[in-house]
Amino acid sequence: THFGFQTVTEAERREKIYQVFESVAKKYDVMNDSMTLGIHRVWKDILMHKMNPSPGTLLVDVAGGTGDIAFRFINYVRSVRERQLQRKLKHHQNLSWQEISESYQEGKSKSLGNSQVVVCDINKEMLKVGKQKAQDLGYSEGLSWVLGNAEELPFDDDKFDVYTIAFGIRNVTRIDLVLSYRNKLTASALSQALQEAYRVLKPGGRFLCLEFSHVSNPLLSRLYDLYSFQVIPVLGEVIAGDWKSYQYLVESIRRFPPQEELKAMIEDAGFFKVDYQNLNSGIVAIHSGFKL
Length: 292
Ligand code: SAM
Description:
Layout: H1 10-24, H2 28-36, H3 39-51, E1 58-62, H4 68-90, H5 97-104, E2 116-121, H6 124-137, E3 143-147, E4 160-166, H7 175-182, H8 189-200, E5 201-212, H9 218-240, H10 243-255, H11 259-268, E6 272-279, E7 284-290
Parallel strand pairs: 1-2, 1-4, 2-3, 4-5
Antiparallel strand pairs: 5-7, 6-7
The structure holds S-adenosylmethionine.
């Protein structure tokens, strides 16, 4: 492979991943849409419905990049609040003055209540694009951006209700060590990130991971291979002038542990009720678990 994953040091691996996202940051959203034909939006919506956050939820979105999950979370919580307020109004239940005033603001509540989302990413460029997007789209309440590493999160223990990581966990995989994990060696950056997820969640908190996974249907799998290896790097070159970063993307997807293996790793980090849902025959999967 062009990264020679089996031979690079950990520092080199990190540096290369940093460079990949530094170079794609400005084109990241356009590339996401063109490579997945916009379907990544649906996958992210499904993640949000699975989370089904209630007002008051404190979310950390790790490897949150340009804020896609955070913005969806804000929209979702606002709409839940809006429906709750409408229901209360309809049934003339006890409303606080704040709720009454909110419900009359432009006919609907724009408030997040006390919900909050923290976007944490290791890459300054990705965060910069995300912050600009938030400003352009008018998101600010309940939203913060933190530079940090998934393997060593800059947060206290037992802090968040939900931890999400969308298309990010693949990047904290030390491929050599994941291969050894199959031979029952436990040390890996991926396990480290999972343990960090566990640490920062409150008891009762939920872990949700959206990631490219492995396709079970043989015909679809061949088509998908063809698309990944022949089309994606070309799209990367044409749209972002960056063949290598998109070749990295395809390779990292292939090398990522399959659904059952990731499930076992999440369980090993201490999570309970670990399960996954395949989307589009396993092109992506959502893994979920709870800290008890
Ligand atoms: N979650 C966003 C989304 O779904 O659109 C962005 C996903 S993007 C494919 C992967 C992100 O992971 C990049 O923003 C990258 O900077 C970040 N990342 C890579 N390694 C990381 C690490 N060790 N800790 C935190 N973020 C990391």
